[in-house]
Design a protein that fits this description.
The structure is a single chain. This protein is an alpha/beta fold. It is 34% helix and 29% strand. Helix 3 crosses helix 4, helix 3 (100-109) runs parallel beside helix 5 and helix 5 (144-156) packs parallel to helix 6 (174-189). The radius of gyration is 18 Å and the shape is globular. The chain binds adenosine-5'-diphosphate and magnesium ion. Adenosine-5'-diphosphate is lined by residues 11, 18, 20, 38, 40-46. Adenosine-5'-diphosphate binds next to strand 2 and helix 1.
Amino acid sequence: MIDLRNVQRSYPIAGGRAWVLRQINLAIGPGEFVSIMGPSGSGKSSLLNVIGLMDGEFEGDYALDGQDVRKLNAKQRQALQRGTIGFIFQHYHLIDDLTVAENLDLPLSYRDIPSAERKARVGDILDRFQIVGKKDLYPSQLSGGQQQLVAVARAVIARPKVLLADEPTGALHSTQGKMIMDLLCELHREGMTVVQVTHNPENAARGQRVVELADGWMTEARRA
Ligand SMILES: Nc1ncnc2c1ncn2[C@@H]1O[C@H](COP(=O)(O)OP(=O)(O)O)[C@@H](O)[C@H]1O
Ligand SMILES: [Mg+2]
């Protein structure tokens, strides 16, 4: 599903380059659940951004869902991203001036889906995530845990094959964090490929494999 070969990322700095990812070789099969750990600044978000096609300025090879990412133009890359990837972040990144239902509809609006079906899908996901009562509220009217619940719903509403989560419980209380982790596990059981970044060993252990990063290098890969 995800196949990174010798991927490297650097930024120009005065007098040279700052290396953020070094010789990353990582293959993640369809339906796997992988946790990425490592100290702050070790390159975890940078790696997730490459995997999620948010960053195309890397060296090396990357195939996502069988497509050679380097061969795609910007439009093809965006289409592959929208069709394949769902993203959740530590701080939710919902759109403040859209309601919950409008936030959920947004990923569908980018795709060629008739409006009746969009409505139905938003209704289904509100049901499934038990947030029907929140549909007309704005993000600022929700708790952190509820906002993250909406963010997960938004990430999966277009049925991506891959869910990428960058410290998804990092800003939550432990009960809310557990609810989000339970949800990631449930989506994984249903067949979604899940890649999460986490600082929490307990959360990391809920994946099948743990990948450790240090200073941009993959230092360890082990079974969870
Ligand atoms: N746009 C950028 N320009 C220069 N350096 C960057 C940029 N983005 C990230 N970095 C550097 O890359 C390193 C890894 O960052 P990041 O991937 O965010 O780490 P993590 O998510 O593990 O905390 C850090 O040293 C950071 O300063
Ligand atoms: Mg980070």
